[in-house]
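Key result, reporting period 2: structure in, sequence out.
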């Protein structure tokens, strides 16, 4: 199976920056898609950004121009650099990895446990 461990969340003032990391371990295929989603209290989980192995990044309109997603394929790690943070960016941020299922019992979709990002003065 696959395990995802996020780090880097915390409390930051509006206009500040944070960098999230997500390290994947286990049976990782060379072709996959990794990304970040977030869920604010009382709201549905939403896409933040995704990036395929060797592919172009994809961003939601809400974060385009402020957030940058990148990955280190050798370390199976994805990063999210968040700049110009706003109070509305406050949420639990989840890492997700998608790949072709490696067993009949796997959906091929894996999630991390989440890391809290709070933007407040």
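The corresponding designed sequence is given below.
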């Amino acid at each position: 199976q696959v395990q995802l461990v996020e780090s880097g969340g915390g409390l930051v003032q509006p206009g500040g920056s944070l960098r999230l990391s997500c390290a994947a371990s286990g049976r990782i295929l060379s072709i996959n898609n990794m990304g970040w989603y977030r869920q604010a209290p009382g709201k549905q989980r939403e896409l933040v950004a995704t990036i395929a192995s060797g592919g172009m990044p994809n961003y939601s309109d809400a974060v385009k121009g402020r957030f940058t997603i990148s990955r280190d394929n050798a370390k199976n790690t994805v990063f999210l650099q968040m700049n110009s943070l706003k109070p509305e960016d406050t949420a639990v941020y989840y890492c997700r990895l998608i790949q072709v299922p490696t067993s009949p019992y796997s959906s091929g979709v894996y999630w991390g446990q989440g890391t809290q990002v709070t933007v407040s003065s």
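The mean pLDDT is 95. The longest strand covers residues 18-26. This case is discussed further under Risks and Mitigation.
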